[in-house]
Structure formats: structure tokens, C-alpha cells
Amino acid sequence: MLQTAEDIRLLNEKISYSASFLDRIHTEISKVIVGQPHMVERLLIGLLSNGHVLLEGVPGLAKTLSIKSLASSINASFSRIQFTPDLLPADVIGTMVYNQQKSEFVVRKGPIFANFILADEINRAPAKVQSALLEAMQERQVTIGNSTYTLDEPFLVLATQNPIDQEGTYPLPEAQVDRFMLKVLIDYPSKTEEQSIIRQNVSGFDNFKINQVASTSEILSARNLVRQVYLDEKVEQYIIDIVFATRYPDQYSLEQLKPLIAFGGSPRASINLALAAKAYAFLNKRGYVIPEDVRNVCHDVLRHRIGLTYEAEAENINSEDVITDILKTVNVP
């Protein structure tokens, strides 16, 4: 763990040099994506911290296009899986196929064997298919028949889903949702942004070519640096207090939340909150985490990890409201 100001200064210099590829990626994505800075930033946080990202929003908000643009800007393999109600697990991970010439079964690998996986409209498929992603997302490996295959690094699942109140969708199992480091809600663009979108598409300039401006080695190197970003013990305690407040709100003068929360964040929430804060600091060319970094990523890390009671739903209170109340109350170091 870093302790001296000189260590942090040297790390800042390393980060400033190493993070230059992120500016190049951002430039390429901005060729085709108008606005949505929050979504693009969260995709980069997932990329830097080796965490899967779930994007939720109504159709037409450039969720799929953003993920494809990110993958296109990196010299890595990419697969898109369109989730549909008739999709089978074998369509995702692969299966054993009989080879008549060799008189034996051979493995035919599925689209999961790529660096970047776009799981499009993931909640359109039933739970059996969604669960086929679980081992790959958590263990970075896939089992086909009696053999286990390790997935190449980097391996990142970037999924989109429509809000679950839309017809023909299936809520994701809680165990799978928890595997996503971030759940990002995508909102409509502003009037000015929408005007730019109209002009770009109507004028026929919507087919900008995305250049490959980063390599997988740069990403893996940056991930190592993200792990080295200094996290002070006081900031660690701040993260723990936030997560514990989702479990035991009455211990943090949040008695009003106790009947609203069915279950709080697991230790995975604490880990991902720390990693996301480090990645956010890296994006800002900083070798240390400040409390504002934690607050900035908190909603995206925790919103899908807090279970609400029927009472909360009856009062029209969502996890966003709960997290906001916690951040207002928990002492900032």
C-alpha cells in the first residue's frame, strides 16, 4: 500500500502516461455517440476495473451502438449475442458436435469466446439462457461437456436491457444481476443533443469509421495500475459504512429506511465500490481515491444490489432514493 507523497506523485506520472489511450478511445466513440457522457464514462470504468456493465433504458438511446463503438476502438475480438425467447444455452457457450469423419465428438465454441461480449436485450431470454452466462461472468471460464475452457483476457460482458415493465421481458435473476459491477440507467438526450443526433443521421454522416486506437496489452497494463491507486483507510471505512447502512440502516440514524429494505449490499458491493472508485480516480489522472470518487460511482454500483420491500414499492420508493438518503447521512471523511 502506498504511504508517502513521493509514491503517489510517481504513480500520478505513471497514470498520466498510461491513461492516454483512454482519450483516444473517447475521441473515437464521440464520432458516433452524441452526448451520453455518463454512459461512456461507466463503460470505461468497467473496462478499467474488469467489471461487467449492465445498461438499462428504453430502445433507441444508443446503448448497443456505444458498446459496439467501444469494442471497435480496441484491437480485440468482439461478439454480439441477440437474446431472444427461443435462444438456447448452447447458442451462447457452444456445444459438442459429432464429427463423422473422425468418428468423435468435437467442441464447437460459442460466441462467448471473445474479449468483448455484447449481450443485447439480455432480459428478452428466459432464465436458463441468462444463467448460461453466470460461470463465464464470474469464473472467466466455460464448461462444455467434460472440459473447462479459460476465456481470454480481457473478458468483459456489456449487456443491455429494456425496463422490465416492457412487454415480453424477463427480470434477471438476482444472482446474475449481482455479477454486474455497474448497472447504468440511460436517460433521454437533451434538446440540443437530440438536434445534433437528427442532423448527423439525416445528413448521412452516421457511418463514421471507428479506428482501432488501443490494444489489449494497454488495457491489462492500465488495470494493474488501477489496482495500485491509493485507497486511504478512512475512505475504506467510508465505503464500509455506506454498504453497512444498506444492511443496518438503524445503526446510522436511518430508522426510516429499515422497513423499506429487504436486504442490503453483499461484500461484493464493497469490493466493486472500491474498484469503481479507483477506476474513476484513474480516469481523472489521479493516483489516489477521494470520497467524491466513491459518491460519484455509488448509485451505479449499489442500485441493483439493494432489495426493497413491498412497503417501499407501495410508497413508490426505489433504490435510488435509498442510496441518496444514505449518502446524505453517512459521515464523509
What can you see in these coordinates?
This protein is of the alpha/beta class and 333 residues long. It has 2 domains: 24-85 and 113-205 and 212-220, P-loop containing nucleotide triphosphate hydrolases (Rossmann fold); 230-329, Magnesium chelatase subunit I, C-Terminal domain (Helicase, Ruva Protein, domain 3). It is 46% helix and 17% strand. It has helices at 5-18, 20-29, 37-49, 63-72, 89-93, 127-131, 134-139, 174-177, 191-202, 216-228, 233-247, 267-283, 291-302, 310-314, 319-329; strands at 52-56, 74-75, 78-82, 94-99, 104-109, 116-120, 141-144, 147-150, 156-161, 180-185, 214-215, 261-263, 307-308. A hairpin with a 4-residue loop joins strand 4 and strand 5 (104-109).
Tally of individual domains? 2
CATH homology superfamily name of the largest domain: P-loop containing nucleotide triphosphate hydrolases
Mean pLDDT: 86
- Characterize the biggest β-sheet: 5 strands, parallel
Annotated CATH architecture of the largest domain:
3-Layer(aba) Sandwich
SSE arrangement:
Blueprint: H1 5-18, H2 20-29, H3 37-49, E1 52-56, H4 63-72, E2 74-75, E3 78-82, H5 89-93, E4 94-99, E5 104-109, E6 116-120, H6 127-131, H7 134-139, E7 141-144, E8 147-150, E9 156-161, H8 174-177, E10 180-185, H9 191-202, E11 214-215, H10 216-228, H11 233-247, E12 261-263, H12 267-283, H13 291-302, E13 307-308, H14 310-314, H15 319-329
Parallel strand pairs: 1-9, 1-10, 2-11, 3-6, 6-9
Antiparallel strand pairs: 4-5, 7-8, 12-13
Helix pairs in contact: 1-10, 3-12, 10-12, 11-12, 12-13, 13-15
